[in-house]
Sequence to fold (576 residues):
Amino acid sequence: MRNLKNRYKGLNLKSILIQNTDEFCRNTTLHGMKYVADNRLKPSERCFFALSILTVVCLAIYLIARVYDKWSTTPVIVGINPEPTFITDEPFPAVSICNLNQALAAKAEYFSRNSPEYAMLQLLCKREVNTSMLRTLTNWNNLESFILNISQPCEDMLLDCRFGGRNYNCSHIFHPLVTDEGLCCVFNMLNPKFMYVSHTPLTYHNLTNYIMHKPVDWYSEKGYPDDLPTHFYPHKVPGVGESLGLSVTLDVQQAKYYCSSSSSVGFKFALHSPNESPNIRETGIFIENGKESKLRIKPYKTETEQHLRGINRNLRHCLFHNEGNLKFFAHYTQRNCEMECVAEISRKYCGCVSYFMPKIFNNISICSINDAKCERKVMLRMDNRIKSCVDDCLPSCYELNFEVDSFSTKLSHNGFDISNTLVMNMSHLYVEENIAVVHMYFKENSFRSNMQTEFVGISDFLSSIGGLMGLFLGFSFVSIAELIYYAIIRPYRSISKFTQTKDIYETLENGTQSRSAIPTKTLNRSVKKRYNNNVFPSVKIHSDKKHLVDHKMPLPYLLSGDLEKHGKSGSYGWLE
Fold:
């Protein structure tokens, strides 16, 4: 009994794991493992297979790491949407028209050089200005009101308007807006209650002319609301061609020029999404007076699959509508974000912001022409010490942009009639010096948007890994089940059953219950049939203390009384 006790103490988890590992190698579906555990092979042969397995495992790990790197760092790919987008389902672009003249000469000549109005006038004309006088303008509305009063009104600039084949009073579809090019006239832009979070511009305070059209909210990700009224804006694209586009007749009033924002006379146009502010100074196109121009519009739309929301924004490189959280604008676009960013940097490094920037700060000074050097460094990021947030303004995951092809020809009506009766009734000299006719229209009825989708999805990732593991090792999910079984489940069961056998052994050793009192059937059921015989040590059996019977039996057989199978019926013998 003492020898059995010592053998029992020598049985531990390590021996169980070693035996299970050997059985796993012999029975697993993984290629080559059975040769490593085959005792019939020479050690050199077993080492060859072990090295082969190690080599293919390292190669598989390397290739899987490359697949994972592609999956984690390049999750998005941009492709072409197979479904066409019809232009009649999209809004007509917002159109901003600016006269290069910043002030009417007849009004500018009445201001005294020491007046705040003169300081504001020089600011608009980008001339040297009395900084102390300008900094007294603590109310931004004073500057907006001044720009509205000193600039050419929209009703004087826009002589005739036609949209979607219908003639409109221009003041009913255009409204003034202060931009980086001074006062401009804007068509089809969002109503301020949908456009801004705070500080609605003064130019928006009176939009009574828009009563005939009900304002609705629109942005590229959501589109138009389902319950659209009969007449609304932003207007949808009426159709294809010049007849269903937007046509305007403009008067530059060259004789009333006081100062130009450029080195020429004429207009600047910018076509942009209805829910973003225009960037006329940097991206606007020139329209020359004395000519008829055609602007052929080509839309560009980007869409993103909704399940990409779960991917980090720095990996998908775009922001959804509810992720922007801008302070001044209600809708996130890259342009709106950049405007707020530049205003923040300008306030931080220059102590002021330009008059056309978002009003996201209280009691902040307006940048004068004397601050232009600092402002230029901010705008162009010329100083490395200035940490810009512009790079954090990612594109929107849903965007609608417009590209314009411009064509023009000379306006004239010498000796013949023209279709534009308004122009025909003017003198030839006035038309050449002041009038511009512009047509904006779409060329095609539909287009295909760009669609951002998963480059390597979870199914593609698993397929790639499974293919590599199957190619090199014959690995599958069944192999995972085998690993779990031989590494966890089987050792646990063996230890649990061995613990039950220990209880029976201690009962016999302590004499608390005689061997004859333990039914053979109970032992057969609880020990013999439920235990793996290979787990337990073998013992030698004596028929008595003097005679040795050369039989070795596993412990469960010994305890279950099956000695008669080994030629010792009716005798339990002694345990060595």
